[in-house]
Write a structure and sequence with these properties.
Elements (H helix, E strand, L loop, with lengths): L3 H4 E7 L8 H14 L8 E5 L3 H14 L5 E7 L2 E6 L2 E9 L13 E5 L2
Parallel strand pairs: 1-2, 1-3
Antiparallel strand pairs: 4-5, 5-6
């Protein structure tokens, strides 16, 4: 596994469409702590604060183009969404993130994140 200095990216995703108290401050503190603790370098912290679904999708696609073969991306998310683990396997599942913008009217309005270890 790569060390923080070599191959770790930290994605800090905040969707504060409901004015959650201290959410933006917490997100920034988490990003700063990742660097201070040596988890990753500052240039490998991706901050996505109050972005639309299209903006999140573009940023994720851009991030993927920068990843090396054994890089890892850690995600810290604050906001609203839905999640579900695969039955019988807590390490696999999916999350639906509700992005900033108008009301969600179709499945395409969500950002889907699938996880697996």
């Amino acid at each position: 596994m790569a060390t923080g200095d070599e191959g770790t990216w930290y994605l800090v995703l905040l969707v504060n469409s409901h004015d959650l108290c201290f959410a933006q401050q917490d997100a920034e503190l988490v990003a700063q702590a990742a660097v201070r603790c040596g988890l990753c370098r500052e240039e490998r912290v991706v901050r996505l604060f109050d972005k639309t679904g299209a903006e999140i999708e573009k940023a994720l696609k851009d991030l993927v183009t920068q990843l090396a073969e054994f890089d890892q991306v850690l995600l810290w998310y604050s906001g609203h969404g839905y999640g579900k683990s695969e039955e019988g396997n807590e390490a696999r599942g999916w999350t639906l993130i509700v992005p900033k913008g108008d009301e969600v009217s179709s499945a395409g309005d969500f950002v889907y994140i699938v996880w697996s270890r």
